[in-house]
Design the sequence.
């Protein structure tokens, strides 16, 4: 942070208002660069009772990006009596967007009818492009802070300033803070756009942890915002453009602090083209790094026709993703299938490490001791600055005569066919309909299957239960009918004793009907006397008893319609007794 | 809306047919990787038919992935046990990769009855048999007596159930392909004794549902054992 040069404005107020209202304005910096943030503090003090209004002017090229206000009131008691002092402070954060000299006109404060103005202020803004390039520091070092950055600054740190084309360069963005300087990061900028580089992010911590480092004659706390690995794709002098870090200083629970911005310095890189002298034949520019080449098989002894998996791996430090493995097109005595290539990239704080591996299926066509020859891969090792040819070890594979060898219709070893000629060819048309879901996988099918037996079992069980427990109701019915018959008989007997008081004819009919229901389970009501006799005989009653009942019924009918004259309840009772007591 | 739905279905099927044809063209143009992408996409979209898996097997062979090709041929046969071309390609490829492995026909119910059952609409028969039984049972349960021709109907339903049961048994016959040479163990733990050595490409019959690490299988020679799941690919996952 540059040292502050506050410019105190003169009080421009009328003599009469000099003691009533005053306003002061200060800028945090006298000069700045495009992209910086400067703070304008305005303090207005008044002894007048009322609200202080402060008018802030708009200045082109200095847009307001933040504003805080505060009001304070105090009272004192003196010889003149009670005195009130009101103070209003406004802090405005201005973004410096354009170069040139910025004039901030006087700030006007008003309270009631009183007005006061501050002195005008000016700010010198330098163009970002006019920053003088600095010589790059030694590898792994940073450019020391200038006079305006003594307590807080940001820098790139590179592990090297010169690199070969394709060589890994580790770049850090670091913040340096003097002891006692507290800040909060508002944002950590993304790494700058880097044309001509391949980039991998090695670290991007969510929490910045400090370490101590001495720069010049001062110890700083150093915070790493991110670490990248860059792989240059073009030779020449390249520049890492500056990035800007926005943060707040001196914040607390009660205020958010003062916003400021730190900008790194641009950093030059010298990317050297790979030497042409001594370049091996078949060298590919993608194969730059510190690598080792290895080849292995999953087994060294097989029977004829059994496949062997050849694994070729390139491991080390560098941009493994872009490397090319040696091609294995032909191996004597083997059929070679196309490779299956995989990458394992390990992003460590020290840089990009990794392995690129090709798995190649080999099927021997011959018996005997076969050999997978050593594989070669020319690379450029940036650490040594020389070309190297990596070689794997040759691999011996014993192919034993298989017991099935005679039965396998294999071609002669010197006429091995490149593919299986007996294979049926690809189909140009066909059905795309996948097999439908089997019914036994469907809950609905199982429910349907169980419905039949369940219904049958339920119906059978219900009918059996009704048949068994329904007999009770029949007995009850018989018992009820017998009871009715007894009651009706009792009424008839009573009517026989008091023929003048009761209606013996009706009592006889009722008793006869009840007895017929109870004894024969037939209904006689509504039948004529002839029909009654007939029905009784058909139900199994003895003929004489039936005739006696018929005669009694005729007499009862006559007695009912003749006003009970001729009623013979005793005789009727005997007829009923004969009916009930007569054997069937 | 119904017309739009049907149109969408029609367009969808047309896209699938176009992809299938394009995959075949890619195989013929010696671009098996493109064919693999198209065919795998068809499978993901629910078009896992025998023809799709067959062509996928050919593309995988051409791409130098013979084990995956074996799995694809196995899946073609699982979709249609009558697919003799898939069977032929499977056996000839297996003979090349694992010549000592027994042929596929040696295993299980699926291989014994599958090709015959495949000629029957066993799914339709299953639904019909269950439906017929349900009707008979409902009639008997409510009426207390059997309907006319109950005897033949019941016989037909039971026959349908038998066929369905056989189809279910055949479908439950799961298979696996050995992807890397491994050992057939006595039990589901690497400390068990080794029963046999399994070659890459060999076909196995899965006897019981896979455990967390091992699965019980049967070789074509009838030997039962356990194999590490990491060394096999299940044809019906």
Sequence:
């Amino acid at each position: 942070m540059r040292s502050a040069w506050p410019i105190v404005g003169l009080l421009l107020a009328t003599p009469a208002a000099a003691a009533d209202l005053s306003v002061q304005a200060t800028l945090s910096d006298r000069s700045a660069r495009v992209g910086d943030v400067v703070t304008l503090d305005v303090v207005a003090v008044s002894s007048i009772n009322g609200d202080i209004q402060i008018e802030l002017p708009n200045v082109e090229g200095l847009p307001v990006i933040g504003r805080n206000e505060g009001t304070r009131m105090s009272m004192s008691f003196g010889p003149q009596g009670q005195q009130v002092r009101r103070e209003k402070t406004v802090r405005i954060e201005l973004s410096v967007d354009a170069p040139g000299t910025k004039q901030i006109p006087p700030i006007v404060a008003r309270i009631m009818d009183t007005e006061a103005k501050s002195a005008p202020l000016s700010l010198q803004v330098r163009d970002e492009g006019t920053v003088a390039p600095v010589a790059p520091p030694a590898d792994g070092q940073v450019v020391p802070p200038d006079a305006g950055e003594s307590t807080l600054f940001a820098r790139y740190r590179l592990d090297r300033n010169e690199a070969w084309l394709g060589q890994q360069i580790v770049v850090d963005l670091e913040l340096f803070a003097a002891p006692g300087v507290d800040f909060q990061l508002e944002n950590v900028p993304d790494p700058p756009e880097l044309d001509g580089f391949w980039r991998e992010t090695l670290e991007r911590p969510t929490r910045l942890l400090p370490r101590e480092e001495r720069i010049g004659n001062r110890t700083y706390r150093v915070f790493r915002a991110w670490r990248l690995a860059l792989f240059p794709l073009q030779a020449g002098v390249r520049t890492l453009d500056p990035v800007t870090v926005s943060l707040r200083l001196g914040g607390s629970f009660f205020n958010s602090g003062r916003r400021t911005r730190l900008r790194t310095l641009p950093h030059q890189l010298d990317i050297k083209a790979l030497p042409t002298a001594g370049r091996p034949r078949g060298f590919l520019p993608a194969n730059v790094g510190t690598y080792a080449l290895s080849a292995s098989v999953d087994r060294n002894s097989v029977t004829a026709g059994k496949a062997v998996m050849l694994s070729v791996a390139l491991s080390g430090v560098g941009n493994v993703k872009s490397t090319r493995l040696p091609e294995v097109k032909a191996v004597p005595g083997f059929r070679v299938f196309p490779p299956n290539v995989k990458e394992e990239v390990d992003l460590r704080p020290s840089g990009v490490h990794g392995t690129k591996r090709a798995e190649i299926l080999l099927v021997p066509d011959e018996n005997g001791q076969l050999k997978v020859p050593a594989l070669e891969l020319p690379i450029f090792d940036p650490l040594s600055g020389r070309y190297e040819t990596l070689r794997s070890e040759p691999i011996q594979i014993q192919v034993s005569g298989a017991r099935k060898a005679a039965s396998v219709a294999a071609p002669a070893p010197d006429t091995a066919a490149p593919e299986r000629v007996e294979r049926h060819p690809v189909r140009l048309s066909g059905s795309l309909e996948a097999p439908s879901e089997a019914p036994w996988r469907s809950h609905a099918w199982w429910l349907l299957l169980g419905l039949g037996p369940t219904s049958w079992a339920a119906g059978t069980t219900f009918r059996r239960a009704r048949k068994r427990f329904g007999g009770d109701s029949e007995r009850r019915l018989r018992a009820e009918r017998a009871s009715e018959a007894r009651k009706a008989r009792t009424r008839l007997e009573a009517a026989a004793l008091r023929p003048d008081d009761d209606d013996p004819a009706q009592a006889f009919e009722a008793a006869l009907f009840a007895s017929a229901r109870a004894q024969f389970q037939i209904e006689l009501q509504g039948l004529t006397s002839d029909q009654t006799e007939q029905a009784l005989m058909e139900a199994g009653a003895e003929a004489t008893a039936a005739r006696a009942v018929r005669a009694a019924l005729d007499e009862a009918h006559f007695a009912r319609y003749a006003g009970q004259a001729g009623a013979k309840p005793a005789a009727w009772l005997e007829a009923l007794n004969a009916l009930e007591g007569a054997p069937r | 809306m119904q017309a739009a739905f049907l149109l969408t279905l029609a367009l969808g099927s047309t896209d699938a047919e176009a992809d299938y044809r394009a995959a075949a063209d890619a195989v013929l143009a010696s671009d098996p990787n493109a064919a693999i992408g198209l065919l795998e996409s068809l499978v993901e979209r629910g078009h896992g038919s025998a023809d799709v898996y067959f062509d996928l097997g050919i593309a995988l062979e051409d791409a130098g992935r013979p084990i995956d090709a074996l799995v694809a041929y196995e899946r073609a046969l699982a979709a249609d046990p009558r697919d003799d071309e898939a069977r032929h390609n499977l056996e000839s490829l297996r003979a090349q990769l694992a010549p000592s492995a027994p042929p596929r026909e040696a295993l299980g119910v699926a291989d014994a009855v599958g090709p015959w059952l495949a000629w029957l609409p066993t799914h339709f028969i299953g639904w019909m048999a269950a439906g017929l039984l349900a009707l008979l049972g409902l009639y008997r349960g409510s009426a207390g007596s059997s309907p006319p021709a109950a005897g033949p109907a019941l016989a037909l339903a039971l026959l349908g159930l038998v066929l369905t049961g056989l189809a279910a048994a055949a479908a439950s016959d799961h298979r696996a392909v050995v992807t890397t040479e491994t050992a057939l163990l006595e039990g589901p733990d690497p400390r068990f004794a080794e029963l046999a050595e399994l070659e890459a490409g060999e076909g196995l019959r899965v006897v019981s549902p896979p455990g967390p690490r091992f699965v019980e299988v049967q070789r074509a020679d009838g030997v039962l054992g356990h194999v590490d799941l990491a060394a096999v690919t299940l044809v019906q996952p």
Observations:
- The radius of gyration of chain A is 58 Å.
